[in-house]
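User: Show me an example of a complex going from sequences to C-alpha cells.

Assistant: Sure. Here are the input components:
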Amino acid sequence: VSPPDLARLSLNQATTQRWTLREAVDGCVRAGIPWIGPWRDKVAEVGGAAASAKLIRDAGLRVSSLCRGGFFPAATESARRERIDENRRALDEAAELGTEVLVLVCGPAPDRDIDAARRMVEDGIAALIPYAAERGVRLAIEPLHPVFAGDRSVIVTLAQANALMERLDSPHVGVAVDVYHVWWDPEVYAQIARASGRILGFHISDWLAPPPDVLLGRGMMGDGVIQLQRLRAAVEAAGYTGPIEVEIFNQKIWDTPGDQVLATIRERYPEC
Amino acid sequence: VSPPDLARLSLNQATTQRWTLREAVDGCVRAGIPWIGPWRDKVAEVGGAAASAKLIRDAGLRVSSLCRGGFFPAATESARRERIDENRRALDEAAELGTEVLVLVCGPAPDRDIDAARRMVEDGIAALIPYAAERGVRLAIEPLHPVFAGDRSVIVTLAQANALMERLDSPHVGVAVDVYHVWWDPEVYAQIARASGRILGFHISDWLAPPPDVLLGRGMMGDGVIQLQRLRAAVEAAGYTGPIEVEIFNQKIWDTPGDQVLATIRERYPEC
C-alpha cells in the first residue's frame, strides 16, 4: 500500500520515455506510485491494450488516462474520417485499459487556415461522442501551450477548451489541465473555475526560464516558475479529486535512470 | 525615392543582428527600404542617439520605433526605480532619434509571483507616462508570445495589453502588434479591433512549424503558418497606417549576408 500522500500520484509514461510499459509499471511499484498514464505507442509495443491492462492490473496499479487521441484536422474529408476511426480505436484501448479518460491533443491546421482547423476539431470531437458514450470513456480536451499552435494543437487556451466543451455539451466531454500548457494565461484561474466539475485530468511539471528547448525542455516540479500549489488548489476548488499525472518531456530526464527520476518525483510531489 | 509599395516597410534591426547601425542604414538605402527600427544597444555602439539620428537622417531614412524599453518587474523597490530611470533614458533616445514610439517588452517576474509582476508592469508604465508626454513619445505595450512568459514578459496576450492600456487611459500609451507573438490567439481579431486607433506598431515575420528554436527560430514571411495578409488587413481596419517592421530573430538569417536578407524581405513583403 502506498503512503497516503502519494495516493493521487500518477506517472505519465512520457516522463520515462526510454522505459517500456512493463519497465514503467515495475518502476511505479518500486516507487509506490499507484497510478500510471500510458501512451498508445507504448501500449502497442507490449502487445496492445488487453496485454497492457493485464500487466498493469497484475501489478496492482490503476490507469489514470490514456494518451492520446485527437489530431482531428486534415486536408481532406477522407483523411478526417480516418482520424476519427483512429480515435475510435483509442477509445477501445482506453476502455480495455480500464480508464475513463482519453486525453485529446487536438492537432494542428493542415494549412494556414487556423479557424477552419478549429472547426474540424469541434466536428471531430462531436463525431466521437456517441462512441465515447458507448465505451464509457470521456474525452479530455487538453489545451496545449501556444508554442505548439503550429504543429500540435490549434486549441491553445483553457478558455477555448471550455467554450468547445460547453458547445458540445456532453457528459462525455471535459478538459484536461496541464500546468505547463496553461500557467502563463492571465485567465487561467477564472477558466479553471469555469471548468468546475468537468476537469478530467491534472498534469504537472514545471516551466524552466528560459526554456532550454521547445518540446523537450519541461522541468521537474520545483525547478521552474510555475505556481504549482496555487494551480493545484484552484483545480481542487473546481472539484477535481482524481489522479495527478507527472508528465515531463525533457531529454535530460529521459537520459536519467528511471528509478532516479521516480525518486525525485516522489520527493518533489508533496511540496508542490 | 522608394517604389510606392515599399513606402511603409521598415527594417527592425534585430533582423540583421550582425550589422552595425551604419551598415543597416546603408543596407536599407541600397534596398530602397525607407524606415528603420533601431535597437538601443546598436545605437549606443555608434556613439548614442544624437550620432545615430544624424546617421539615419543623413541617409534619408526615418525611424519607425525604438526597441526597447520595459523590463519593469524587479525584486526590490530600488531596482524597480532603476528600471524606470532606464526607461526614461530610452524615452530620451527615442525623442532624439525622431520616433514617436518606444516599444515595451514588459519583463518577466523576479520570482514565481506572476500577478505581482503584472502589477509592477502597470505601475512602471504609469510612472513613465508624464515623462513620455514631456518627450512626445508614446509607449507601445507589446504582448509577447506566451513562450516568453518565464523570461521576457508577463504580458502575453493582446487582451491583456489592451486592458492595461485602457486602465492607464493615456494618449501616450498604445499597443504594438507583432504577428509572431499573437497569431495563435483565438481572440486576436477581436482584440485588434478593440485596439482601434491605439495601435502604435505592426511587426511581421512568420511562425515556422515546428519552430526550430524558441528565441532564434522566427521565419521569413511566407515560410511559416501565419495568416499575414489577414492580420495586416485587421490591423489596417483598426486604423493603423504606419510603418510595418520586419523583425526576425533567426540564427540562419543572421548568418546570411545582410543584403541578401533585405532582398528577400523586399520580395516577400508585397505578397504578405
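The lines above are the inputs; the final block is the predicted structure for all two components together. The longest helix of chain A spans residues 114-135.
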